[in-house]
Prior knowledge:
Layout: E1 10-11, H1 13-25, H2 30-50, E2 65-70, H3 74-88, E3 92-97, H4 104-115, E4 120-121, H5 123-132, E5 140-144, H6 156-167, E6 172-175, E7 197-201, E8 204-205, H7 213-217, E9 219-223, E10 240-242, H8 244-247, E11 265-269, H9 276-288, E12 293-298, H10 300-309, E13 314-317, H11 331-338, E14 343-346, H12 354-364, E15 370-372, H13 375-382, H14 385-397, E16 404-405, H15 409-416, H16 420-425, H17 427-438, E17 441-444, E18 450-452, E19 457-460, H18 472-485, H19 489-493, H20 507-529, H21 535-547
Parallel strand pairs: 1-8, 2-3, 2-5, 3-4, 5-6, 6-7, 7-9, 10-19, 11-12, 11-14, 12-13, 14-15, 15-16, 16-17
Antiparallel strand pairs: 17-18, 18-19
Amino acid sequence: MNLDAASAWVLGREAVRELDARTIAAGTPSLNLMEAAGAALAKFVAEARDCGLSSSASSRGRQRGLLILAGPGNNGGDGFVVARLLQAAGWNCRVALGAGPSSPDAVTNLAAWNRAGGQCIGRQDAVDLMRAGSASGFELILDALYGTGLTRPVEGADADLIHCINESSIPVISADIPSGLCSNKGRPLGIAVRARATLALGAAKLGLFLAEGPDYAGRVSVAEIGLLPPSAAGLEMSATVIDDATTAGCWPRLARRSHKGTRGHVLIVAGSLGKTGAAVLAARGALRAGAGLVTVASVAEVQAAVSQVLPEAMTTMVAADDAGQIDCAGIDVLTAAAAAADAIVIGPGLGTGAGASAAVERLASLPVPLILDADALTIVAGWSKARRDGVFAARIAAGAPAAVLTPHPGEMGRLTGMSSADVQQARDVTARSLAKELGVIVVLKGAATIVCDNARIAFNLSGNPGMACAGMGDVLSGVCGALAARRTEAEAASPTAGAAARDWLDPFERACLAVHVHGAAGDHLESTTGPGFLASELADRVPFELASRMPR
């Protein structure tokens, strides 16, 4: 993954200040940084409008309008740059000021806005425009009130203004971070702007992804503005983003001599009586993500369903118990099937009976890439601590790659003995703790899905609320399996090279890529069809998203 640029990093308030200071000390004038930030915001605003993020489709035939709410600090200065640049491009821009700017660079850019013939209005005028909605002639609001430096609760007139912003029907874009949101903890400082989208400037801010941060930030993007690479500035990496830039070019194209054997064989152990769809969707996700071979091992009902709707997948029948789940008598069949697999996915629709539990334990002992999802996670959560620790310690001792666990907040709660609400309030801490405890890679699903191992943590920027429906996680587990199973060219040339040849993209990065292309597929469907798209449709979009991340 591409992690050199500052825009790939996630920073807290103190680290942001330090990086700014060291960039300026290294010779980049602060005014240049503000100009770059304003230019990035102006481009983002223009593209957001062109992508349909406007308050009314009827605005298409008239001059574009942007209302900018500028605060006293550098965020306000960024807003003055946006106003100047977009007005020069033909937009109708108005800047609403409360108190005058206190930042020297903001003062300079306010003067430049005035020299360009720009207009400033008072807060009450801005309130009137926001209450008028699309009738005001302004189709977007830029929130440039407060940035990462805010630490006190928002009160008085500022709180009233933010309340009005949130009540307005005009879509809001926030500059760097929604005003009023704690940049370290993701909690509103009394009240915060609820943005449709946020453009983080230079580097993503930690609060955008924690606690209530995703609800306030909306869709998050990151803009490069010329900051030093944090590592060059002496900062230690604490977290990164997973986005188009960090995943660009990281999935290798298939060699001309590739065949189904070199593209990886995924064994999917999934499904039970009444839950055939989970197995079908996981298999579909694996095939669409480029697996050369997919075998679904399950009970007869699931085998029949897979054969009927997904003829590209192979099946292996496993004995069923009285509940229609895998029976303990079928464990040897699974072990034999696993011998031919390059990766194993277990859990979607599996059930939690004795046979399913035995299957999870047996397959987890094999030195093969392993993805645990859904019912497999519930099974692991029900084990004693000694049993759980022993299973994962044995994997590590055998030299197996770290298992990938893909819980949603409820499953994470069961794994950690917490409520799902408590998990959501401390997603990063909870995911890190479990990854370190078991030596696994945790994919904690939800808004800003977290991927972490015992040393790294990354926040995914793709995905949308339309993906909060049945089957999406099943597809993700299949995609994870396909990417884990894919062999490198070195492995294809020397099949005995084993895990040592997997040095171009490690298991953590493969999980990051799987999560991102899964979310990006959902974003494409949401933008083209709106909410209500199906998990099977998302799976069918995955090949296009993977192809766009191959080297040119």
